Amino acid sequence: MINWNNFDTLSSVSTLEKAEKVDLVKVMSGESGAERVKKYSVPMAGNLTYNYAAKEVDDTILEGLKKLAEEAQLTEKYEALYNGEVINTGEKRMVLHQLTRGQLGEKVEADGVDKREFYKKEQQRIADFANKVHSGEIANAKGEKFTTVVQIGIGGSDLGPRAMYLALENWAKKNGTFKMEAKFISNVDPDDASAVLNSVDVAHSIFILVSKSGTTLETLTNQSFVMDALKKAGLDPAKHMIAVTSETSPLAHSDDFIEAFYMDDYIGGRYSSTSGVGGAVLSLAFGPEVFAQFLDGAAAEDKLATNKDLLKNPAMLDALIGVYERNVLGYPSTAILPYSQALSRFPAHLQQLDMESNGKSVNRFGEPINYVTGPVIFGEPGTNGQHSFYQLLHQGTDIVPLQFIGFKNSQLHNDVTIENSTSQQKLCANVAAQIVAFACGKADDNKNKNFEGGRPSSIIIGEELTPAALGALLAHFENKVMFQGFVWNINSFDQEGVQLGKVLAKKVLAHETEGALAVYSQLLNI
Amino acid sequence: MINWNNFDTLSSVSTLEKAEKVDLVKVMSGESGAERVKKYSVPMAGNLTYNYAAKEVDDTILEGLKKLAEEAQLTEKYEALYNGEVINTGEKRMVLHQLTRGQLGEKVEADGVDKREFYKKEQQRIADFANKVHSGEIANAKGEKFTTVVQIGIGGSDLGPRAMYLALENWAKKNGTFKMEAKFISNVDPDDASAVLNSVDVAHSIFILVSKSGTTLETLTNQSFVMDALKKAGLDPAKHMIAVTSETSPLAHSDDFIEAFYMDDYIGGRYSSTSGVGGAVLSLAFGPEVFAQFLDGAAAEDKLATNKDLLKNPAMLDALIGVYERNVLGYPSTAILPYSQALSRFPAHLQQLDMESNGKSVNRFGEPINYVTGPVIFGEPGTNGQHSFYQLLHQGTDIVPLQFIGFKNSQLHNDVTIENSTSQQKLCANVAAQIVAFACGKADDNKNKNFEGGRPSSIIIGEELTPAALGALLAHFENKVMFQGFVWNINSFDQEGVQLGKVLAKKVLAHETEGALAVYSQLLNI
User: What are the two backbone dihedrals, phi and then psi, of residue A396, each rounded to the nearest 5 degrees?
Assistant: First the structure.
C-alpha cells in the first residue's frame, strides 16, 4: 500500500531538521577528510562513481535520509511507476521512459500493446533505417548518400538530443563510428533556421521533424522554413524528411515524410532522449550500435535505482541529499559543473529536466503545498567556469551546492605534456582542487583573500565519457529528479506552467489584446 | 567629497524597506497596465529602450530608489571612476574599460601615457593589421590568405568575445562585412583544442593568444597544443600567431608572434570585450569598421549612464531595481532571457560579468558585510527556454526576476509567413505574452493550472541587433553591475575568489597533497 503524503507531514523530516548540522570545514580537513572521500562513495553504471564526501552529511544525517526514503516509500513508488501505474496524475498517464531501455518489472500494456515491445520495435525500425541511410540504400533523388542530419525540435526534442550528440561526437570520431554530422534547429527566431540552413548542403541533408503532439508552433514553423528552402533548391521535401511523433499526431502516416517513427504520451519530452526523439538523430549520427550502448548504460543505472539500500542507490542518495540541502539547509539553487568540454550542453539539458519537472507549487493531487520544491539549476563546463562565475560560488553571500562531473581520460586521447603534466591531468587536478577549496576554504587575515569554505559539492567520476557512461549519467539525473518529486509529493511529469504563455501569444498574433499586452505588442511591432 | 558607506548604513534603504510593496497582478492589469508600459520606459543608445513596467516598482518606490542613488552618490562614483580614481581597491588599480570606447571625463594618465590615446592607438594598430590580413598583405608562408581566426583564451578572454562574435556573425554575413570565420579554444580539456583544430584548416588559420598576465595555465597549455599541431603540419607557429596581452607580460615583445597588441591592468578580463581582447578577433572576423560601430554604441550608453536623473539613466535604474529585488524583496537569482538566437551566449557572458564582479562578502575596504550581494545569474534564449525551465519560473515556489531582450527585426531578414504571421512576429508575440503571463498570472480553479503571477520582469527592446545595439547592450550591463557594486560598497573589479583553487591545483600537479585532496587525486588518476 503506497501512501502519497506531503513532505511536511513526514516525521523523518522533523528528525532531520533537528539533527546537528555538519561542519564541512572540520570534517573534510586532515585524516577525517581522507576517510570520508574513501567511504562516502557509491558505484554507478558505466564505470562511474558517485562520491558525496564533500556534502554536508554524516552517518547521523544519512540515517535520517534513510528513514525519509523509507517513510516516503521511494523504491515502492519507483516500482509502481515502472510497473505502469498512472504516476502522471495531472495528465492521467503512465510514465514509461525507463521502458525505452529495459524491462524493470512486469509487462506494461497500453492501447492494447506491450509497451516494451513497442519501444523495442521502434528502436529496431530506426536502426534499420539508419543502416540503410549509411549504406546508401536510402539516398537523395540523385541516389547520392545523405551526409548530414538536421533535427527540428524544441525543448525536450532539442536539449537532450543535442547535449547527447555533443557528448559523443568526439568519441565517435575517435572510435570510427562517426557516420553523419548532426545540426539542430529549435528557436522560432528565423535567424536560427536560416543560419543552420546556410551551414549545410541541403541536397545531402536529411531532416528529422520531432514533435510528439505534431502541433508545436516552433517546430511546425521551422518545418515550413526548411520545406521552403528545399523547394527553392529544387528538391522534394518529402524525400528529405522523417518524423518522430506519436501515432495519433497529425504528422503520423503522412506523405510528407520518407518514414515516421513513433513514441507516445507516456514519455515526457524532457525524458525522451532514450526514445526515438534521441534515437533517430543519434543512430544516424553514430550508428545504431552506439545508441544501443547508450541505452544499456541507462538501463543499468535504472536497475541500480531499484536498490532499497540508500547507500547503494546513487540516484536516490543524490536526490535525498538535494532535498536536505533545499528544504533543511535552505539553498535555493544548484550548479552542474562537468569537467569535460563534451558535456558543454549537459547542464542546459539538466536545467530543463529538473526545473520543468520539479518547479511546482501544488502536490500531485493539485493541492497547494507549503514547502519549497525544485531549485534553480545552472552550469557551465570547467575549467571555463573557474574563470567566470566561481568567484560568487567561493566568496558570494549565498551558498550554492555543486555537482561536479569528471573523467580520468579524454575522449580523443590527444594530449600534450607541459611542465610534467598532460592537459587531462591539469583538468582533473583542477576539479579535485575545487572540491577541497569549496569544502575547506582557507583562512586569511586579509578578509578579501579569506575563504570561509563550508560549500558543499559531490562529484561523479568516470573512466571516460563513453556511450554507456553517458547513458548512466543521463538516467542517474532522470531518476534523481523522479525521487525528489516523490519526496515532495509533486507530479514531476506534467508542465502546466508552459500553457498560459502559449495562450497569450496566440492572442497577440490574432490581435486580440488589450491593456499591457496591447502596448507591448505595439512596442514590438507585431 | 565621496563617502563609501556600507549599504546597511544608508537611511534610504530603511525607507525602501518600509514602503508598501507593489501588487504586480493589480497594477499590470487593465488600463493601469497599459499606462505603466507606456510610462515606465527609458531610451537607451543603439535604438534600444529599457522598459520596466512589469517590475515591482511604482512612483513611491522609484522615489525611494532616487534617494538611494543620491545617498550612495552613484553618478559621483562613476565620475570618479572614469576620471581615473583607484576604484579597484583590492588590487589598487584604476578601472578604465570605458576609456577603450570614449573619453567621458578628464584626461587619464598612467605609466606616463594618456590612456585614452593608448587604447585608441592599439585599436588603430589592430585595424591596420586586420586590413592587411583581409587584403592578403599579411598571409601565410605560401602567400595565401588567412581564412579563419582562432582565439585562445579563457574567462573574460573567451566568453565576451565569443558571445559578441555569435551575436554579429549573421548580421555581418547579411551586410557584406563578414571577413573570416572565428573559432574559440578555452578549456584545458584536451578534447576542446583537438576538436577545434580538427575543424579548421590550420594552414590558413591565424591564432590569437589572449592573456593579460601571460601566465594563464589553460591558455599557455593550449598555446603549446596549437604550436604542436602547426609544427606537425609543417608550419611555423610564429607565422600563425598573434598575442593580446599587457606590455609587462612574458608574451609581450616576443618572436613567437607575428604581432602583439596591448591592454593593461586597468581593464578586468570580464570588462575587456571593447579592448583588444574583443577587438582583434572581431576586427579580423567582421572588419575594423564593424568593431568601431560596436564601440560607438557602447560609448553612447556609457554617456547615458552619467545622467543624474535616475529615470533617464537606464543602467542605474536597472541596477537599483535589481538591488531592491535582491535586498528588500529577497530574490536570490535573476534570469537573462534574450529572444534572439544570436544572443545564445550572451547570458553566459553576463553570468561571468555579474557573478565574478559582485559575488563578494567583504566591502571595498576588505571588511565583512551583513547583507546579500550579487545574485546567481543564468539564462538561455527564448523561445527555447519556454519549452524548458520556464515551468519553474511560472509555477515554482521561488520567484526569479527576469530580464528579457527582444528585437523587432531579425538579422538575416529571411522569414516565412505561416498562419498570417512571420517567425519574427511569433518570436515577438511570445516575449510580449510571457511578460504579461508572469506579471498578471491567471486564476484557475484547478490549482495545477493556476498562475499566481506577481513575477517581475523588464525588457530591453531594440530595432535590430546591430553592432551599435550590441555595444549599447554590453555597456548597459557593465554599468549596471558597476552601479550595483557601488550601492553594496564592494569592489566589483577584483576576483580573489578564484585564487585558492589555482593554488591547490598546482599542489595536486606537484603531488604535494594530503588528506582529502590526496584521495581525490588518486580517484582521478592524477
Answer: -70, 175
Q: With beta carbons less than 8 A apart as the criterion, state whether A50 and A315 touch.
A: no
Q: Which three cell numbers stand for residue A291?
A: 545508441
This model of the complex carries an ipTM of 0.97
Rounded to an integer, what distance in angstroms lies between the CA atom of residue A506 and that of residue A510?
Answer: 6
Average pLDDT over residues A477-488: 98
pLDDT tens string B115-154: 999 999 999 999 999 999 999 999 999 999 999 999 999 9
Mean pLDDT of chain A: 97
Q: How many residues does chain A have?
A: 526
Q: In the prediction, which pLDDT does B279 show?
A: 98
What's the confidence (pLDDT) of residue A111? 86
What gap in Å lies between CA A193 and CA A188, rounded to an integer?
A: 8
Local structure of A244: helix, strand or coil: strand
Spell out the residues 6+ positions from residue A358 whose beta carbon is closer than 8 angstroms to its own.
Answer: A373, A374, A481, A484, A485, A488, A490, A492, B392
For residues B275-287, average pLDDT: 98
Neighbours of B3 (CB within 10 A): 12
Please say whether the beta carbons of B498 and B358 come within 8 A. Answer: no
Handedness of CA B200, B205, B209, B210 (dihedral sign): negative
Q: Which of A157, A192, A325, A387 to mutate to test the interface with B (most CBs of B within 10 A)?
A: A387
Is residue B233 classed as helix, strand or coil in its secondary structure? coil
With both helix axes pointing from N to C terminus, report the angle between A190-199 and B159-174 in degrees, rounded to the nearest 10. Answer: 80
From the list B369, B373, B509, the residue facing A429 with the nearest CB is B509
Mean pLDDT of B441-458: 97
CA dihedral over B317, B322, B324, B327, signed as positive or negative: negative
Q: How far apart are alpha carbons A101 and A103 in whole angstroms?
A: 7
DSSP class of B178: -
Phi-psi label, residue B515: left if phi above 0, alpha if psi -120 to 50, beta otherwise: left
On the question of pLDDT at A390 being above 90, the answer is: yes
Torsion of CA A68, A71, A74, A76, to 10 degrees: 160
Q: Name the residue type at position A198.
A: N
The 3 state secondary structure assigned to A409-474 is CCCCCCCCEECCEEHHHHHHHHHHHHHHHHHHCECCCCHHHCECCCCCEEEEEECCCCHHHHHHHH
Partner residue opposite A448 with nearest CB, options B188, B333, B362? B362
* pLDDT tens, residue by residue, A249-273: 999 999 999 999 999 999 999 999 9
CA distance A465 to chain B (A): 11
Give the alpha-carbon dihedral of B482, B486, B488, B492, to 10 degrees.
40
Distance in Å from the first CA to the final CA of chain B: 55
Q: Is the pLDDT of residue B325 over 90?
A: yes
Inter-residue contact A224 to A236 (CB < 8 Å): no
Task: Give the up-direction half-sphere exposure of residue A226: CA atoms within 13 A in the CB hemisphere.
Answer: 38
Contacts with B391 from chain A: Cβ below 8 Å: 355-357, 359-360, 495, 497-498
Contact A235, A225 (CB under 8 A): no
CA distance to partner chain A, nearest, from residue B56 (Å): 15
Q: Are A174 and A411 in contact (CB under 8 A)?
A: yes
Radius of gyration over alpha carbons of chain B, in Å?
A: 24
| Measured distance CA(A197)–CA(B414) in Å, rounded | 11
Counting beta carbons within 10 angstroms of the beta carbon of residue B131, is it exposed (0 to 12), middle (13 to 18) or buried (19 or more)? middle
Residue B207 pLDDT > 90: yes
What is residue B223's predicted lDDT score, i.e. its pLDDT?
97
- Mean pLDDT score, A454-458: 98
Per-residue model confidence (pLDDT) at position B111: 86
CB atoms closer than 10 angstroms to residue B24: 24
Write the pLDDT tens digit of every residue in A327-343: 999 999 999 999 999 99
What is the rounded distance in angstroms from the CA atom of residue B122 to the CA atom of residue B262?
Answer: 6
For A418, the enclosing helix (H) or strand (E) is strand A417-418
